[in-house]
Amino acid sequence: MSVHSMTGFAQVRWQSGTQGFVLALKSVNHRYLDLQFRLPSDCDALEMKLRRLLKEKLIRGHVDVTFSLDRGASTEFQLNRELVKAYVAAFRAAATETGLTSEPDLNAVLKLPGALNSGVGAVDEAFESVAMAHAEECIAKLNEMRAEEGRGIEHELRRSMARLAASTDEVEQMRVAISRACLDKVHARMNELISGKADQDRILQEAAMLAERSDIEEEIVRLKAHIKHFIGLLSGSGEIGKKLDFLLQELNREANTMLSKTSGIAGDGLRITELGLAMKAEIEKAREQVQNIE
Question: What are the tens digits of pLDDT across the range 19-56?
Fold first, then answer.
């Protein structure tokens, strides 16, 4: 299974005689699987079946499910006289009790559920079976589009990881020079404290603190490990979007730490600052892409 985007659209249409339907699926990114249905009132059982099927086939995304019945141009509608009469009678009774003289709006009356019945029979099990078979086809089309977009996202993410890896390698090549520059700062600080006649404990405390900030080897190791893990997930399957997002947060954390440790160092330190900022920008672009991965 390749990387899947959460964005896609698919539609299927079926017609047999005077009865038919159109099923459309539109999905966008979401933290979880969020299904929103727009179906006729007499399709409650079908909605439950569609919901179960979609949960089996999709992992994440906000999905709008639109199912519209096509009754045919020659469909005749029958007026539910008893329902309409009862509504009009109730409306007029309420008007009399409140001292109003208004009459009910016929357009509003005819929009009442059940006020108009078509000559086409209700949705039965045979019709639902046809609808579910086409729903399988529609979901397959949706996943095909999501996979196609996912391939584009995967390509961009692999390029981003390649650029991050190249920047990390360049930083690693400058690590020794940076450590030496940090050591010079430690010596300068020690001389400053000694000349100021600082106590021995203060000198040791400052030395330990500066020594801790003098090497970025751990950050380089973690950056490489996170990049390797990220690329491995792109080659895997299942729900990877959240995992990729977490790794990008960790990459950003390491880039920030690296920048903090090398701040104020001239020469190669300035180049590492440039690389660190470029890495953070690359990570942010990757996060925008990852937000749309299932």
Answer: 789 999 999 999 899 999 999 877 888 999 999 999 99
Query: What is the spatial distance between Cα 64 and Cα 182, in angstroms, rounded to a whole number?
Result: 57
CA 115 to chain centroid: 42
Sign (positive or negative) of CA dihedral 87, 89, 90, 92: positive
Q: What are the DSSP E strand ranges found in the chain?
A: 8-16, 19-28, 33-38, 61-70, 77-79, 116-118
The per-residue pLDDT for 11 is: 97
CA–CA distance from 260 to each of 191, 215, 255, 264, 276 (Å)? 23, 11, 9, 9, 10
CA 254/CA 242 separation, integer angstroms: 19
Burial class of residue 82 in the structure, from the number of CB atoms within 10 Å of its CB (0-12 exposed, 13-18 middle, 19+ buried): exposed
Q: What are phi and psi of 116, to 5 degrees?
A: -120, 130
Is the pLDDT higher at 94 or at 65?
Answer: 65
Q: Which residue has the tokens 């020469």?
A: 267
> Could you tell me whether strands 77-79 and 116-118 are parallel, antiparallel, or unpaired per DSSP bridges?
antiparallel
Question: The whole model's pTM is what?
Answer: 0.71
Distance CA 145, CA 160 (A): 23
Name the token pair of 36.
């929103």
CB 261 within 8 A of CB 213: yes
The letter for the amino acid at 289 is Q
Distance CA 144, CA 138 (A): 10
3 state SS of 12: strand
Give yes or no for a contact between 242 and 32, defined as CB atoms under 8 angstroms apart. no
Query: Does residue 117 surpass a pLDDT of 80?
Result: no
- Which residues, at least 6 apart from 51, have a Cβ–Cβ distance to it below 8 Å? 35, 37
Q: What is the DSSP-derived secondary structure letter of residue 3?
A: -
